[in-house]
Design brief:
homodimer, mainly alpha, two-stranded antiparallel sheet, about 65% helix, globular, disordered C terminus
Amino acid sequence: MEALRNAACTARSTTMMMLVWIFLNAVAGLKAEGGGMEEELVTEKEAEESHRQDSVNLLTFISLLTLTILTIWLFKHRRVRFLHETGLAMIYGLLVGVILRYGIPATSYHNKTPPSCSLKEGPSSTLLLNLSGKFFEYTLKGEINFREIHNVEQNDMLRKVTFDPEVFFNILLPPIIFHAGYSLKKRHFFRNLGSIITYAFLGTAISCFVIGNLMYGVVKLMRAVGQLTDKFYYTDCLFFGAVISATDPVTVLAIFNELHADGDLYALLFGESVMNDAVAIVLSSSIVAYQPAGANTHKFDASAFFKSVGIFLGIFSGSFVMGAVTGVVTALVTKFTKLHCFPLLETALFFLMSWSTFLLAEACGFTGVVAVLFCGITQAHYTCNNLSEESTKRTKQLFEVLHFLAENFIFSYMGLALFTFQNHIFSPIFIMGAFIAIFIGRALNIYPLSFLLNLGRRDKIRGNFQHMMMFAGLRGAMAFALAIRDTATYARQMMFTTTLLIVFFTVWVFGGGTTPMLSWLHIRFGNGKRFQDERCQHGKWEYSRVGVDPDQDLQPSGDSFQVLQGDGPQDEGQSKTKQESAWLFRLWYTFDHNYLKPILTHSGPPLTSTLPSYCGPLASCLTTPRAYENDEQLRDPNTDLIHNDADLTFTFGDAAITTNGASTSRTDAARGLGWSANGKRIGSTSEEALERELDSREQELLSRGTRLVFPMEDHV
Amino acid sequence: MEALRNAACTARSTTMMMLVWIFLNAVAGLKAEGGGMEEELVTEKEAEESHRQDSVNLLTFISLLTLTILTIWLFKHRRVRFLHETGLAMIYGLLVGVILRYGIPATSYHNKTPPSCSLKEGPSSTLLLNLSGKFFEYTLKGEINFREIHNVEQNDMLRKVTFDPEVFFNILLPPIIFHAGYSLKKRHFFRNLGSIITYAFLGTAISCFVIGNLMYGVVKLMRAVGQLTDKFYYTDCLFFGAVISATDPVTVLAIFNELHADGDLYALLFGESVMNDAVAIVLSSSIVAYQPAGANTHKFDASAFFKSVGIFLGIFSGSFVMGAVTGVVTALVTKFTKLHCFPLLETALFFLMSWSTFLLAEACGFTGVVAVLFCGITQAHYTCNNLSEESTKRTKQLFEVLHFLAENFIFSYMGLALFTFQNHIFSPIFIMGAFIAIFIGRALNIYPLSFLLNLGRRDKIRGNFQHMMMFAGLRGAMAFALAIRDTATYARQMMFTTTLLIVFFTVWVFGGGTTPMLSWLHIRFGNGKRFQDERCQHGKWEYSRVGVDPDQDLQPSGDSFQVLQGDGPQDEGQSKTKQESAWLFRLWYTFDHNYLKPILTHSGPPLTSTLPSYCGPLASCLTTPRAYENDEQLRDPNTDLIHNDADLTFTFGDAAITTNGASTSRTDAARGLGWSANGKRIGSTSEEALERELDSREQELLSRGTRLVFPMEDHV
């Protein structure tokens, strides 16, 4: 009853807001028309009008976001799951797009074609206009298609609503991607790292080439039936493949989170989608870089191909190093200063350093978004251990809000763009072909790779997991941002339109079908372990009891995005690779644990105990008093990290273990020596743990047990 | 010892960062030069270079901010108080400005004058360039002085570092001003509201006209001695008066905060500076609006004057209404939905609604910054009571970080602008005149108004307070933003240069001299009550014990910006106006408490008990279950608000009271009836409380007492 009244209220406020917005738009339009009367102050007036129009446009999006938020609340309130917030944002965007396009008369207050002047020289970034002695400065906006000159002026407002595509890349994507990286520090993620990297790199490459080749076939078909007259090269097809290979299962993951679906499946999907975004960006820019070398033949050219591969590797590793280095620098700064006494300064520093990664990478010619991703991962892995508790929460919440706003903005914009973008090219054959191609591309990514991975994994990726991964191949923000980045040519415009439709379809249909699909595939949820992506483990938080899930969020708020759930068994769906395949990883782990963590953070064993004795002075200089404290007191606040990490290693080691109830020798573990011993000691229990059917009552008991243990932490 | 090592570390990282940044800049420059070789892809390359250069520039500022943060930490760590973070930011900005100007060879990779073309028609916002069939779109940047054409191209990088002034108004000021408004919900503020408004409106107007007239004299003098050849009208002088009347005692207030200086003085200074920012903006735009009416005579014209006054009132009230309405809408939305279950949604909504105020006001032709200020006040007064505890913290922290970053950015930019801005006009006479004028203007603002106010105040604004207010007339971000907004004419350029120097001088000298000045004026600190500007009172927080300062921050973090201090006596420096002058305010208070608060928030008495009986159905529809609960349970979580508000009323009422230790009848208070009774009952104690010398030991006891009371809250 009350919910109904609330719904009515929301609907009313929704309508009201829309009306207000339409009124404002109309006013702006009218005023603009009125302003056109005088000739004298026309420039100043135009600038003012332009500013006002910009405000109205931004207001449009903000109203859209506000509406979306209110409706999300309503949906959450009533536990509606068939439509996710991103889908909702798109629907609102579509509605406003329709109104903008058809509802408002084409005001076009200066629908005269703009004055043009001719020059012999090449275009420069600045142009001066000499107007009877007065000089006006103009800046280059870009090349414009002749066809567009009239189009553009046809309805100025529509054009205004269309943002500069670079806004997506430079403003909206970084917080989204950083947030993804920052929330990756999860046992489940690292446990499945091998598989995730395989899917992300190899899988995305497969998907890109499969889709590219299939689409080339479609293009040939279109040319054969006379549906295509303009240029459409093979590289364009490959580019489309790269663009559309970036998956974004945000809808699916939100539902997983709500239903507490399987943690490993969550980790696989989340990790894959985060990583393949990075791969898709670099892949697409490598393909673009391939283009000019072919000199219009666009045939296969071995040297150009290898050059592209080189570019791919160069950009990827460069961005990776950039991100990692900034993360490491932040970790060092936060370790060696006492900034943690001032959470505001700490948060600001963290934010600035993370942002500077993006700019640094862009300034050096690498890809900022990719750098930001790895920066996020490094920050979560190292810096987070140095931050004060307050800052850990602040940074998490700050990026959460930014991520939320940016994501919903992109999805609203997508809805809007379907109607306001001026150069859509709807080609039914191309669209149908693309739908089939992405399906095939996804299938050739998931199934063969899963088969190969299963050869090496002890805990196989089962059939129903594979089907779910296949199903969760939604396309989202990244595909859109890549597609809108360049819509100059006919081919690119067709791709953009198709991408938009694919995003709509997959988000609505696959996103909405997640819950039925989960039941249909018999993927357990509700009692499984939830993979929580919203906090970073903090060494200082003293709930690091064996048996308490360190992924658990302590925050006792009413935030139902993060319902607390103390779950006992940690071994479900634990992946196990063969020991021999893990030596590299184990080497890295030992190095990380013994040297990197102690150098970069307050956690881990003191360097004095891990470094050879001749490095003594250096080691004692780099070790902070806090690290000694941690080591001396046996109630090491970082035990959870160690256990956690140890756990991680085990899975790449011989046997899967459960840290649950296992009383490991902490000092040994802290010295990074305990893992193999432990791995063997508890190896036997792991086999039993493979049985997936756990009595839920027992689990609850365990869960309660962990909570009871909680306040006693200090007495250990 | 360790601090020294830390300092050395910071210094090293500082140097390193500067080197990195210079290297990057050089690389960008070199690459740009290399890029100029080819002619074919020159536009694309230029666009890329421009993007890269933009990244480097932003990186410059981010490095500056990072450096500032690290040095702030160092200063806080060592309790250095002679230089505030804003002063520091300016110094770093200056250093980088010097390097940019003199350290780097003028790369100017396209130092040829840009191509220009002639047209007959007036300039339009878009210009097309026909280049042998290819069309390029250019957008208008603005009129350019002929003198500048060569200047501009002389060193492209310097020009690039110069941001679009509108960035300050549309991006950097709103969070600063919103934060100021959002942190105004303080007893001390409302207690001194009358005085604050007097200083802000009347005082700023006096200051503006005094400075304007004095400067007109200076301009005449300059013309007489032949130092001024260009135009400089009376309205320009008035404009300068408006620009430079916006005070920004952020440095002083930070030190007040640290030293726990007198709460009322803090409130007077903080309130005045926040309000006079708004007044200065609107005043300056009214003066600009006055200009064209005079048609180049720039003499006094009564009709134009009244038109300007009308514009002032129109813009001010329009912006006020805009801000208040958005705040009220947000309050209603948060009240009638159950958004508080989802802090992320709530925070996002809050952020969006607050931002939309700005856009809405701009779209309607009002002043966004002013609207945002009043929106912040409304949000703090109403919406804050509906938010969940989590969201209250989140919103506070979010705006705190934004405010911090924006403010430090502006101050670094100021330092930078002294060397990178291309059109400085240093006129010694004008600058000297301006320094004298602002001194006289401030004096004629503070002393006469204080005299007038003291006629009405029972708790006089004493002489040393007046001197401190005089001394605290620093100029900051707002003066700079107003001055940089338009630097097209000679007069404006001279004003900009002068404003910059005034800001530097006042922030460094007056800001640095705050601590000595406080001792010299015998203004007590350390045991006085601290006026805390960093949280909003929340009805749900159950520390609303009589005797506990509701301004106290609960947050038990290590944030030393907000050191906890439970202080007993609340009556120091309490202002008392005569009863007759307060009836209007009391009327408003009763209305607000009985109707607005219950309608807009969950706090206050249920409407069913305050509205006449025939409004019964409406009242019960508008009252939420939470409000009934609050009323029914005698341990009303809103008691602190009520006491707080009651306290506020008393000061406008007959007698000053101390809520400390006064066991008021809460149900009565909750019905808004208790205040007069209380006011009389405790009236006697207030006189004693006027004695300012309080035994600090006693205070500590009281303070401890309040902490002990704290956990027993629930049992009352």
